[in-house]
């Protein structure tokens, strides 16, 4: 019977005015902190009143210009840039190791060790003279074999090569498009400008040496070994403001920094070949091992615009969170201050109708004020956490 009586009960809040400086100060300080958090961080910094679009669509076109000299040979863009299509990822070759006139056949393998018979069995099975000093295994393939242990100086003129980047972006949620060639940029300006983080932050032309320096690298070392540099273009736009204030921000970093620290395979290199046919129909090729500075143009961003739904959700969450001051003050008031029992007696009161008293007089037990206080505090805390969790959940869905 007691369970039934407890089930059919109703709890409601009771307003008690407590004239205490301690509780009053704590209550107002907590409320001010919560309001400052929502106004300063949630609304002004995080712009929680906006709907955000992070699904940025982007296209990148690039063009490299400059001349260099390598092994007494003048090199232009067609010689040192690959691929030639002007994509967002391209390589500027700074050093070549060339193996000329390779043809299909059999020849000595290039090795630093002397003859080992078991190793040759997996080749042609023969051991042949590599030179007058030692023998190596004979191989079948493109001959003569590549010698990649020789050292050549890199093409240091590449430091003054320029990279032109044309980037177009779109935020599909708002159907907003923009490019890094800003409306105030003229043809005359493009022909003379170079990107500088202090004076020309919107110039789309970058000097290769500056890009390497901005990434915190030494150009001569990078040109000798090769490496991967990232040019990052960030678009973080507040579409509640003018379109003119949505502009790109450039930053630079080395993407293969882990590779630069290892002694096993430092830097970046690759091989490719140029094929020819002689008059008698024999195919031959020039094999090139290229050390290059690879440029990756990375585009990221997000845009935000005012929307009523997230605004209302966060306003409700703010007002709901202000109630945490009441919960904190109730805990202090009912458990830690002098006269706590008096406060409990004033705050909690049990009322039973006459019918209930007559019908359940023997089975209805009056619970202690302390138990009621703890139960109500738990109810306050649980309700507040539920409302806060719901507000965050709706915010996550909208974002």
TrEMBL record:
Entry membrane topology: Multi-pass membrane protein
Residues annotated as transmembrane: 25-44, 315-337
Domain of life of the organism encoding this protein: Eukaryota
GO biological process, any: calcium ion transmembrane transport
Disulfide bonding pattern of the chain: 107-143, 120-137, 193-203, 237-246
GO molecular function: ATP binding; extracellularly ATP-gated monoatomic cation channel activity; purinergic nucleotide receptor activity
GO CC annotations, alphabetized: plasma membrane; postsynapse
Keywords assigned: ATP-binding, Cell membrane, Disulfide bond, Glycoprotein, Ion channel, Ion transport, Ligand-gated ion channel, Membrane, Nucleotide-binding, Receptor, Transmembrane, Transmembrane helix, Transport
Binding site for ATP: 63-65, 162, 269-271, 289
Signal peptide stretch: none
Reaction equation(s) it catalyzes: Na(+)(in) = Na(+)(out); Ca(2+)(in) = Ca(2+)(out)
Keyword Lyase attached: no
Residues the record marks as carrying a glycan: 160
PANTHER family: P2X PURINOCEPTOR, P2X PURINOCEPTOR 3
Subunit-structure text: Homotrimer. Forms heterotrimer with P2RX2. Heterotrimeric P2RX2/3 has a ligand dose-response profile that is distinct from either homotrimeric P2RX2 or P2RX3.
Function recorded in the entry: Receptor for ATP that acts as a ligand-gated ion channel. Extracellular ATP-activated non-selective cation channel. Plays particularly important role in sensory neurons where its activation is critical for gustatory, nociceptive responses, visceral reflexes and sensory hypersensitization.
UniProt similarity note: Belongs to the P2X receptor family.
Name this protein carries in UniProt: P2X purinoceptor
Organism per entry: Erpetoichthys calabaricus (Rope fish)
